[in-house]
Design goal:
2 strands; elongated; two-stranded antiparallel sheet; alpha+beta; 3 helices
């Protein structure tokens, strides 16, 4: 997988965990085709959530001024 999009990175990480034959993404839906040896479903959930959850413990949420500040 040579691309640099979030979908490419997700596919790389999922395929690297083993037991996955293919990954398809369309919008907010991720389909995982399982191979012979099935990986732990929790591992798959952690990989997906790790890339798509932005506000987790320890991350400071920006205030309105930071979100609307225009550089230039």
């Amino acid at each position: 997988i040579a691309g640099a999009t979030p979908a490419d990175e997700l596919a790389r990480r999922l395929l690297a965990c083993g037991g996955i034959a293919g990954v398809h993404m369309n919008g907010l839906v991720v389909t995982v085709d399982m191979a012979g040896a099935h990986p732990d479903p929790e591992t798959i959930v952690e990989i997906i959530a790790g890339l798509y959850l932005y506000w987790v413990d320890g991350v400071e949420v920006p205030d309105d001024d930071e979100l609307t500040d225009v550089v230039g």
